[in-house]
């Protein structure tokens, strides 16, 4: 029975697994998209999404809290260039997203050993998926219609009736 065993060990000991996930996360942050196996992609998703959330909350916090977040992320990634990229470009791009910063796309099987392959990418950095969609404007759930919107159709009706009378 596997009660309470949430971590996929990926056939590695703890130190090897942590080092591998840190390296893969740094590559993902640097290149915005990497190819790997499906199991590693799922493990990487669980590893990197909390780090992106910590980077995103830096803009709202005070400097002491943001320094603390940077140190926590650095302790996981162990790469200062990846940390600066994460807290810079990536945090700005995903600032309004409430979660789900990565996407896993299955690619088929690897030729050598028939392993299931996948591409994991940062969602906001894919121009192919985002090109067709216009930027969503913020809307509230319970908004009222403005009175100026109601007045405009009436004015246009009056103008059309005047032009018909002149003819």
TrEMBL record:
The keyword Ribosomal protein applies. PROSITE patterns: RIBOSOMAL_L17 (PS01167). The keyword Ribonucleoprotein applies. One of its GO terms (biological process) is translation. Keywords: Ribonucleoprotein, Ribosomal protein. Gene3D superfamilies: Ribosomal protein L17. Coiled coil: none annotated. Residues 147-167 have a biased composition (Basic and acidic residues). InterPro entries: Ribosomal_bL17, Ribosomal_bL17_CS, Ribosomal_bL17_sf. It comes from the Bacteria. Transmembrane segments: none annotated. Part of the 50S ribosomal subunit. Contacts protein L32. Belongs to the bacterial ribosomal protein bL17 family. This is Large ribosomal subunit protein bL17. It comes from Aquimarina brevivitae. The gene is rplQ.
